[in-house]
Amino acid sequence: MTILGFKIWKVTGHSMFPRIPEYSYVLVCNWFKQTRIKPEQTILVHSKQYGVIIKTVALIDNNGFIWCKGENLSSISVEEIGPVSRNQVIGRVLSVFKK
Amino acid sequence: MYHLLKKLDSKIKFATAAAHCDIPCKIYDPISAQIAVLTMIRLVDLLNDLQEKTFYNPEDNAQFIRLVGQKELYGNKVKEEISMIWGDYIKKPQLDKYPELHQLVHSIMMETSKAKQSVDKEITMSLLAKVNRFADIFWQSKGKSTFVAQCPYPPAQLLVYPLLNA
Question: Does a cis peptide bond (omega within 30 degrees of 0) precede residue B155?
Fold first, then answer.
């Protein structure tokens, strides 16, 4: 359920641990999702290979593609995730709610 | 706030976003750690072969550096694989049933450090025994019986394998 561009998502998996442990909830905003993405922001992305994933922006290349990373050694690598275009971005994480 | 969201989640089911690991969650297997220890043993054997030479030519020096570097890498792999299973898979039920686990994992970490620092085969063999014990407990915790067999490649040491049709 999205209200005014804000939506709560539940996180599964460990790649964002310890900042976002598994089964945390995150508040995601889809405002400015195509224009104000910057490195070190946490975003939700629709990946063709992995579905909806939550990752941290590693860098934005000269072609405007976003490269994402996990925050844990067990995460799939930046290269495995591959570049994502801005229209694959679902939104930016504003708050994390964890146990 | 978390508990409120959890209650809401039980009613309206929030959509999920995956924080993917390098392996799909719940896929764990200690064989990677066991093979990494075997690799360390093999590298120690090769290093000890080199030690028997009285004179090192540049090729030998290059080989020595390469073997030591690889031993370091595989030592790190042992630690990574064991700590991954320990941190992600081992939970209270396994700890209650196998109370030696914390001590065993800690001793594997210590022994791996020793094996990285040394070319003493006894140390890597001791490490293999501990990692085999870890593998044995892991498979028992999954209700699988195990057997011991010699691996069919160098360094031809004994490994604990799961009996998967049991």
Answer: yes
